[in-house]
Amino acid sequence: MTETASPYPARRRVGLWLTLGLTAAMVAGIVGLAMATGWEESLASLRALTLAQLGVLLALSASNYALRGLRWHLYVRVLRIPLSLWQTFLHYIAGFAMTVTPGRLGEVIRLRWIWQEAGTPPERSAPLVVVDRAADLAVIGLLIGASVAFSTIGLAAGLPVAGFCLAMAVIATRATLLSSMLRFGWQVLGRWPRLFVRARRAALALRPFSDWPVVLPALALGGVGWLAEGISFWLLLDWMGAEVPLWTAIGIFLIATVTGGATGAPGGIGGAEAAMVALLSLQGVPLSVSLPATAVIRLTTLWFAIAIGLGALPFALRAARRGTHAAQS
């Protein structure tokens, strides 16, 4: 009797080809627009950047990942999972290697590493993924709201985005509210009772993360981290000759980030770039600046995160294998 091949390798190949296709389409679109507006002006904007300035952009992005890594460790401690700061930080950074998977679902590999090193099953550590995403949505929503309030030019379009982020963050982290919504959903559908029971159990597991001694430092860490990347975008535009106010630049960067993520595309590829160029154009920034600026900021944020994630991935895998061997011995 022949064995049936596992579908997972095929699914991974589909995800890889989807990511490559979206990346190629995004690059082709930027190159095509740059050619239409003239290579010389776009290249001149790029030449205005120095290596030191690129180093500043990368340092600001790195600070975002470091602060969010500390937040991940805070959440791990809330669940009383016996892992050190170094272990949780390595898990978080290495997880960025999976950012380009559809919907960033590949980042749940962090739960597998926790299982291998601490013996904590994914059913217990699953709330980490939910609260981490919810915390990002919360701080991004608050920062977009601040950008709308403080922007001298105006970003009224950011209000629905901010409202969406905050609403999703509240729903995802309020255990009682989420449990009630799941119960209502089961009453309406009347199907899959076991699935709804498991989902309600997972929702109730979010309760410890709603305490203010957890919420406030988590918001502070994430808020400063995302603000650093918004400031890096503002600095980049200034260095390339575009006079965009600070809070307007921060708002454009974060609105584009949420827009890209809402598409479900790996890493928000395509959607984030299109939104960023469009919002900059509304502020009067010419394509000769908005196109290279978009390309650079995505390289120093999304692709930089993937690069450091790939660099940390072998160490995380090695540590996980050691943890598995120790548990079996």
TrEMBL record:
It comes from the Bacteria. Keywords: Cell membrane, Membrane, Transmembrane, Transmembrane helix. The chain crosses the membrane at residues 14-36, 48-67, 79-100, 137-157, 164-186, 214-237, 244-269, 289-313. It is found in: Cell membrane. It is a multi-pass membrane protein. The keyword Transmembrane applies. GO terms for cellular component: plasma membrane. This is Flippase-like domain-containing protein. It comes from Halovulum dunhuangense.
